[in-house]
Amino acid sequence: MTTPRPIRETPQQPTDVEQAARAASQPVPDPWGVKRAENLIAGLTGVLSASIVVTPAGEISEIHVLAQPDTPPKQVVRNIESALMAQLGVRVDHRKISVAQTADVRPIEQLQEEAIASRAKRRVVIFRDLSVRPSEKLQRIMVRVRLGYGERESEHEMEGTDTYRNRVETAARAAAACLDDLLADNSIALEGAALVDAFDRRFVLVAVHGLGGREAQLLTGTCEIRESPERSAVFAVLDATNRWVDARR
């Protein structure tokens, strides 16, 4: 009686998908440092950013560069070829280098400053400063407001009773006085200020008389109270008068 031989299982060969997955998980050879090369290129004159694409063998297949418009693209390419050869000993065909240029690239901080300045120019009268301090008299306060109009500035200080509603009206009177000082050919007079509750929020509502020549007009403005009632009162006055002032500028 013969003993049956054990059956040996033939190991399964990995599929093409598994082989591709294993190859993808293996680190790509980087003999000379792709990141170092990108930093080297980005540091060249006129270059804003650089991105290098390599083959699985670690060879350069593409170099994409964003450059400023004041440097010719051919000069940028030559600078890249020379820098890679001199610093890393890597020779690159110029046909693998693509250069894109932009006409307006500035730091984000500069763009923000320009946007703020442009927005400020569209406003006729600009808020400069506000301060609130106790008066020498008991239960009274001093509100000082400073506004700007073109290259001119005006500052006025008003005294009022230290109550929530009167603090609002005092700040509004100080703002109206600044406007009246800044507008040489026109006049501004505060009619009144009130607190209004609406939409689960509190607002300052002001009424201002604008006097221009023989014309008198009642102007109204609002501002939601967020930081302080005095600050909102000043912005409510500006909300009421900016268009009126702009029409007479």
Oligomer: single chain
SSE series: HHEEHEHEEEHEEEH
What is the number of helical segments per DSSP (H or I, 4+ residues)? 6
Q: In percent terms, what proportion of residues is strand? A: 25-35%
How many structural domains are formed by the residues?
2
Secondary structure: elements and pairs:
Elements (H helix, E strand, L loop, with lengths): L15 H10 L8 H9 L4 E8 L5 E8 L5 H16 L8 E5 L6 H15 L3 E9 L5 E10 L2 E10 L2 H19 L3 E13 L2 E12 L2 E10 L4 H19 L2
Parallel strand pairs: 2-3
Antiparallel strand pairs: 1-2, 4-5, 5-6, 7-8, 8-9
Helix pairs in contact: 5-6
List keywords for this structure.
249 residues; alpha+beta; GMP Synthetase, Chain A, domain 3; Double Stranded RNA Binding Domain; three-stranded mixed sheet; three-stranded antiparallel sheet; 6 helices; 9 strands; elongated
Summarize the structure in words.
The chain is 35% helix and 34% strand. Helix 5 packs parallel to helix 6 (229-247). It is α+β, with helices and mostly antiparallel strands. It has 6 helices and 9 strands, in the order ααββαβαβββαβββα. It has 2 domains: 28-101, 2-Layer Sandwich (GMP Synthetase, Chain A, domain 3); 111-247, Double Stranded RNA Binding Domain (2-Layer Sandwich). It has helices at 16-25, 34-42, 73-88, 108-122, 164-182, 229-247; strands at residues 47-54, 60-67, 97-101, 126-134, 140-149, 152-161, 186-198, 201-212, 215-224. The chain is elongated and about 85 Å long.
